[in-house]
Amino acid sequence: MNPAQQPGEPDSRVESELKLEKLRCEVQQLKSQLGFRGRLAALTPLLSAGIAVLGVWISLFQFQTQQAAAAQKIETERAQREADAKRVRELELQNPFWQKRVQLYFDATEAAGIIASRASGPDRARAEAAFWRLYLGPLAVVEDDQVESAMVEMGNCLNKTEDCDQATMSKRALALAHSCRQSIGDTWRLGLTELKGKYQQLK
Hints:
The chain is mostly helical and 203 residues long. The protein has helices at 12-117, 122-136, 139-142, 145-158, 166-188.
C-alpha cells in the first residue's frame, strides 16, 4: 500500500481503469446500435427500389392481361361477324329454294285445312286434288322429314288407308301446319316457339 494513501481510500488508478472500461462498453454498444441503423439506412434505398420495380411489374402484367383480353374479344367478334356474313351469303344463295318451300308449305296447310273443315262439297274436292298434287309433286322436292311424315299421316286418312273421322282429320291437319311451321323456323333459325296443344296427339 502506498504510504501516503489512507486506509479505505479507493485506488484512483483502478477507478480510472473501471471508468475507462465502462466507457469502452458504452462506445461499443453505441457502435453496435449505429451499425444496425446504418445497415438499415443502407438497405432502405434498395427496398424502395425493389418495391418500385415490383409495382411496375404488376402494372405491366395487368396491362398485358388487359391487352390480351381485349385482343381475344376483338378476335371473337371478328370471327362472329365472318360467320354471320357467311350465313347471310348462304341464305341469299338459297333464298329462292327457301321461298319456294315456304309457299308450298302454305299451299299444303291451306289444302289440309279446307279438307279438315269441310266434310264434302266442291271446295273439299278441290282441296283434295291440290293436296295430292303437292303430295306427289313439288312438295316432295322441298319438304323435310317431319313435314313428309305429317303429309303421309294426312294422306292415309284421305286414301282410306286409315279410317279417320273428321276430328282425327282436323288433328292431322293441325299437325301438318305445326310441322311446316317448325321446318320454317329451323330453316331460318328463327327459334319459333313450339306450339302446344291437344292436336299434337295424333292417336
